[in-house]
Write a structure and sequence with these properties.
2 domains, about 220 residues, three-stranded antiparallel β-sheet, about 20% strand, two-stranded antiparallel sheet, 9 helices, Arc Repressor Mutant, subunit A, about 35% helix
Length: about 220
């Protein structure tokens, strides 16, 4: 069954299944000043806007079963002010304003200024922020193999552990010697497990093996 909040951007951002305060690395590569340095204020403000466009998942209080989703803000778009961004992130109103404008120029948001009524008072030029979710999603996932290409824990070149020997076949260093007998010449492969561990340590990005560490491994 498909659930909807009634807001296209909220539904689309919900498909990302984001949790917590999200600052993807790809944002630092895409949201930059002209000098090539990351626009940290812009990145922070965009993360706040995306947070508000993430749906709230509703569960039944008595059964705990999933009932649906809803949006976090009341209107059709997110209402925020430059002052609120200023207070939240400890920056000046001018810094907040300039960052929001930069995000709009990059195509990640669009500003809307409306006249609203609050407490029987009309307020003009109230800022509403529309999230351009298509561009945010494209920026966030522009590298399909990013999680595979980076990080010491991703080692696609390591051979999986075999079932029979219960050891990693790639890290075994073997010494071949020849033994002659009356029948034929045979080759005996003698494994040096200690050397294997040391070489694996250094060849797979763990750094140079210090004497203390070597002693602990061999012990």
């Amino acid at each position: 069954m498909n659930f909807t909040t009634g807001n296209t951007s909220v539904d689309a951002i919900g498909q990302l299944h984001l949790e917590g305060n999200i600052l993807p690395h790809t944002w630092y590569e895409s949201i930059k000043f002209d000098n090539g340095k990351p626009d940290l204020v812009g990145i922070l403000i965009l993360s706040e806007i995306v947070y508000w466009y993430r749906p709230v998942y509703v569960k039944d209080e008595s059964t705990g079963q999933f009932k649906g989703v809803k949006k976090r803000f009341k209107a059709d778009l997110l209402q925020r002010s430059y002052d609120s961004f200023s207070e939240q992130f400890g920056i000046s109103k001018r810094q907040a304003t300039d960052a929001v404008i930069r995000l709009e120029k990059l195509g990640f948001i669009q500003r809307h200024f409306r006249t609203i009524e609050a407490n029987n008072t009309k307020l003009s030029n109230v800022l509403f922020v529309e999230l351009k979710h298509e561009n945010v999603i494209a920026m966030t996932f522009k590298r399909d193999t990013y999680h595979i290409q980076t990080g010491d824990l991703s080692r696609s070149n390591v051979t999986p552990i075999t079932v029979e020997r219960e050891t990693n076949t790639e890290i075994t260093t073997e010494i071949t010697t020849k033994i002659s007998n009356d029948d034929d010449n045979k080759q005996v492969r003698v494994a040096n497990p200690q050397k294997s561990v040391f070489e694996f340590y250094e060849q797979n990005g763990f750094g140079v093996l210090a004497p203390f560490t070597a002693e602990k491994i061999s012990g």
